[in-house]
Structure formats: structure tokens, C-alpha cells
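About this split. The held-out portion is used to measure sequence recovery: a designer receives only the C-alpha cells and must propose an amino acid at every position. Recovery is the fraction of positions where the proposal matches the reference. Here is one held-out target exactly as it appears in the evaluation file.
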């Protein structure tokens, strides 16, 4: 069983002590996000939890406890979202330079093969226009060169709660949104250039839950990637996860132990923030 920690909230950053307590207990009870009365007990014993897939903005706690996790018999890899957006969009995220240093140290400890960068979502606005993304991605990729071998990108999707928060910023004059609709050519040119920048930094680039972008140099990928898991950890990956809401999600089956809610990071565009 693959354990996702977590698509729904940043457990490594904000609740890692809780997670370690659950490891000691050997299980965690997880509420169905769509039916809170339905609770599933998920085993966290090493013989049942074949692999941890961590999602976070700050892998510092994972770095601190990496050796302990491995000594306990757990296998894991780490996906870190690093976008470097202005505070208006990301009010409470760690500084990019700090995250880069942590990822470099983590790569030295567990190898760069198990450290994945997510530049996600690509959000276009007056604060984060095409030129911003080109400059920003170039700087981040240069800083991460050697520490990661894969970067995953995806475009912003319009979730209702996020749209309300973005509309409020727009009404206050903080930013102006630039919808992708009607700008397909510019978006495609941006993605193609990001692919070029990634390759120059010795990184493979893949998309997350997007239509085929292979003609732009970005093959369709997955965050919980069956091929990667099989190659890296020697595990037989389960089939595709049909429960994921996005049409083009290619992730294999996993069990997520997080919960949607009031994430302290408060990223305006986040689908998990309620």
C-alpha cells in the first residue's frame, strides 16, 4: 500500500510530530473528506505501508527524521512544491533560498532520485505573468541543479473556493488574473520554454494532470508514478487511481491520510484550502 502524505494538507510542514505519533501507534484513522462519518483505519506498519509519498512546501522535518524513518524500515520519496510567488499569493511559505538549501541537504542524504520538485500550479496574473515565470523558473532550476532530477509542472485549475479568494484580491486591486482561455498560444510557448530551461538544468520535466504536452517537450507524468515507483523501489505499483477528480491525472492508487481545511500556508490558489 502506498501512503500519500498528503495531497490535502502539508503534514510534513505543519503536523510532522502528529505523523510520528501515528507511526508509533502503527495506524491512523482517516475520515472520508466527502463523508466524515465514514472512517478508515490505515495501517502504518512497515510491512503494510510499502511506500510513503510525501508532499510539502518545506521538507525540513523530513530531512531531520530521514535516517530514523529508514531505520524503522520505511521507504519514501519527497515532492516539494516550490513556486517562489509573491506574498499576495503565498502569504506563509518558507523562503525559496531556505527550501533550496534543505533540498540540497536532503538529496545528499537520500539521493536526488528521491527528491522531486513541483512547480505547481502555473498561475498567470499581473504579478506572475509569462516573463515572471521565465525568470523565476530559471532561478529556481539553477538553484536546484544537482539536488533534483525531476520537475513536475501543471497549470492552475479553477476551483470555486480559490476563485473566490482570487476575485477578492482582484477587487482590491492587488492583482489582475490572466485566464488561460484565449491565451493558449502564449501558454504553450511558456511551457515549451520551461521544458528547455529544465533540460538545461539536467532535470526531466513532466506534467501533472494535463492533456498531452509531449510536443512541447513535457511528457504526461504523475506525482504518484507507478513507473517511477517500480524502478526506484522495486515495487509492483497498483493500477491507476480512478478516484482522483482531475480527468488527466495519471497517478496510481494510494491512500491519503490528510484532511482538507485551514492550512496555515494560506496559498490563495490552493484547492485544499477551505
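Reference sequence for scoring:
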Amino acid at each position: 500500500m502506498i501512503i500519500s502524505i498528503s495531497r490535502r494538507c502539508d503534514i510534513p510542514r505543519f503536523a510532522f510530530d502528529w505523523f510520528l505519533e501515528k507511526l508509533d501507534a502503527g495506524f491512523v484513522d482517516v475520515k472520508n473528506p466527502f463523508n466524515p462519518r465514514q472512517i478508515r483505519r490505515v495501517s502504518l506498519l512497515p510491512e503494510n505501508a510499502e511506500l510513503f509519498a510525501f508532499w510539502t512546501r518545506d521538507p525540513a522535518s523530513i530531512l531531520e527524521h530521514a535516517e530514523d524513518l529508514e531505520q524503522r524500515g520505511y521507504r519514501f520519496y519527497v515532492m516539494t512544491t516550490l513556486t517562489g510567488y509573491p506574498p499576495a499569493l503565498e502569504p506563509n511559505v518558507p523562503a525559496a533560498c531556505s527550501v533550496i538549501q534543505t533540498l540540497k541537504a536532503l538529496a545528499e542524504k537520500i539521493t536526488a532520485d528521491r527528491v522531486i520538485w513541483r512547480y505547481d500550479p502555473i498561475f498567470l496574473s499581473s504579478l506572475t505573468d509569462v516573463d515572471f515565470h521565465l525568470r523565476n523558473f530559471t532561478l529556481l532550476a539553477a538553484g536546484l541543479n544537482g539536488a533534483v532530477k525531476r520537475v513536475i509542472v501543471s497549470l492552475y485549475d479553477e476551483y470555486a473556493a480559490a476563485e473566490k479568494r482570487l476575485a477578492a484580491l482582484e477587487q482590491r486591486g492587488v492583482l489582475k488574473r490572466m485566464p488561460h482561455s484565449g491565451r493558449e498560444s502564449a501558454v504553450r510557448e511558456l511551457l515549451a520554454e520551461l521544458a528547455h530551461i529544465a533540460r538545461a538544468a539536467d532535470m526531466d520535466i513532466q506534467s501533472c494532470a494535463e492533456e498531452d504536452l509531449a510536443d512541447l517537450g513535457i511528457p504526461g507524468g504523475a506525482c504518484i508514478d507507478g513507473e517511477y515507483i517500480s524502478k526506484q523501489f522495486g515495487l509492483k505499483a497498483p493500477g491507476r487511481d480512478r478516484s482522483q477528480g482531475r480527468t488527466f491525472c495519471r497517478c496510481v492508487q494510494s491512500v491519503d491520510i490528510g484532511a482538507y481545511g485551514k492550512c496555515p500556508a494560506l496559498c490563495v490558489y490552493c484547492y485544499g484550502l477551505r
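Annotator remark: The chain has eight helices and ten strands.
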